[in-house]
Structure formats: structure tokens, C-alpha cells
């Protein structure tokens, strides 16, 4: 996510990165933050006194965790921003929900809706007439064909492909490099070619 913020700032967008909020930062996380000359602001309690104009982003992939954090942020009255890397492309009638993060190389065609806190990772492509519900994470190099619905809190593994017209139920997981050729029921994990 930090690379998307940096690219947005470099392209002239008006962002000022304050730092990370982490309830239990590990030593490697602290070291990585220090190397980038950023800082850990504190845990969730830091947000209780954050200025109300602060925009927040959730950099966690697990949908249920994102939903829980979003509920806390909403209770605190904080708004989620939208980040779109300058190299991403979007066609007509694309709606990005609050907290959406669209990484470098993402291609969004037309008639697409992203819910709250959806993360589209590097070089993902989304076909026409796709609905991605809240708290979904789509990992790098995923290809989603047209007329697909992805249910809330789902996760799509890197290099996966979803064929046209399919429905992925809430809390579903698609394994890396899987080829999804039929609907996936709620809470089900599929993997392989074809995905089972």
C-alpha cells in the first residue's frame, strides 16, 4: 500500500502519509518501517484522538479482519480514502468504494462496482459488469472475466482466473493459479485447474 501512496504523491495527488497503526508490531515490521523513514503511530487507540479529517486505509488481506477494523473506524467517525495508482486504468462507470486500494498495473474495464475496503493488487484485470463486494482481497495477476460477482470477505489467490458469468459466494477463497469454471458456494475454498 505504501508504494501506491508514494506513487500518488509523486503524481501530484494531495496526500500526507502520517504512519502506520499496529496493535502488535513485530520487530521486523519496526525495522522495515524505520528503513522507509516512516513510523508506527501506535495501536488502534491512536485513532481515538486522530483528527477527523484523517483518511484511513486497511492494509490487511483477511476479509473478516478488515470488516472488524472498519467497524471500529466507523465508530470513531473516521473516513476511508480511495487510492488508485497512477498506472492503473479505468473505463466508464467504475465505482470505487471507500477504502479501495487499486495497485499498479490494474485494469478495470466498464460497469464495475467495488465495495468497501477492496484491495486489487498488482496487474489484476477486471472484466465488464463485475461486482466485488466489501472487504475482498484480489492478489497479483488475477484475471476476472465479465459478469462476475465476488461475495464479501472473499480472497482470490495470485494468478487465479475466474471465467465469465460466475458467482463466488461470501467468504470464499480461490487458491493461487486456480481456474474457476463454476460458481463457488459461500465459505468454500477451491484450488486447481479446473478449480475444485
TrEMBL record:
<dbReference type="InterPro" id="IPR020019">
    <property type="entry name" value="AcTrfase_PglD-like"/>
</dbReference>
<keyword id="KW-0808">Transferase</keyword>
<dbReference type="InterPro" id="IPR011004">
    <property type="entry name" value="Trimer_LpxA-like_sf"/>
</dbReference>
<dbReference type="InterPro" id="IPR018357">
    <property type="entry name" value="Hexapep_transf_CS"/>
</dbReference>
<keyword id="KW-0677">Repeat</keyword>
<protein>
    <recommendedName>
        <fullName>Acetyltransferase</fullName>
    </recommendedName>
</protein>
<dbReference type="InterPro" id="IPR050179">
    <property type="entry name" value="Trans_hexapeptide_repeat"/>
</dbReference>
Amino acid at each position: 500500500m505504501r508504494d501506491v501512496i508514494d506513487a500518488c504523491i509523486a503524481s501530484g495527488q494531495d496526500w500526507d502519509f502520517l504512519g502506520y497503526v499496529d496493535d502488535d508490531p513485530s520487530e521486523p515490521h519496526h525495522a522495515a518501517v524505520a528503513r522507509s523513514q516512516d513510523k508506527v503511530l501506535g495501536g488502534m487507540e491512536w485513532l481515538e484522538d486522530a483528527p477527523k479529517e484523517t483518511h484511513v486505509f486497511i492494509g490487511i488481506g483477511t476479509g473478516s479482519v478488515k470488516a472488524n477494523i472498519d467497524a471500529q473506524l466507523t465508530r470513531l467517525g473516521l473516513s476511508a480514502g480511495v487510492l488508485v495508482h497512477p498506472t492503473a486504468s479505468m473505463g466508464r462507470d467504475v465505482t470505487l468504494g471507500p477504502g479501495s486500494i487499486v495497485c499498479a498495473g490494474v485494469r478495470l474495464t466498464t460497469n464495475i462496482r467495488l465495495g468497501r475496503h477492496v484491495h486489487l493488487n498488482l496487474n489484476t484485470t477486471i472484466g465488464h459488469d463485475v461486482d466485488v463486494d466489501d472487504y475482498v482481497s484480489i492478489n497479483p495477476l488475477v484475471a476476472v472475466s465479465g459478469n462476475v460477482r465476488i461475495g464479501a470477505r472473499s480472497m482470490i489467490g495470485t494468478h487465479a482466473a475466474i471465467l465469465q458469468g460466475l458467482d463466488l459466494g461470501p467468504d470464499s477463497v480461490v487458491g493461487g493459479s486456480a481456474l474457476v469454471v463454476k460458481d463457488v458456494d459461500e465459505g468454500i475454498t477451491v484450488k486447481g485447474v479446473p478449480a475444485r
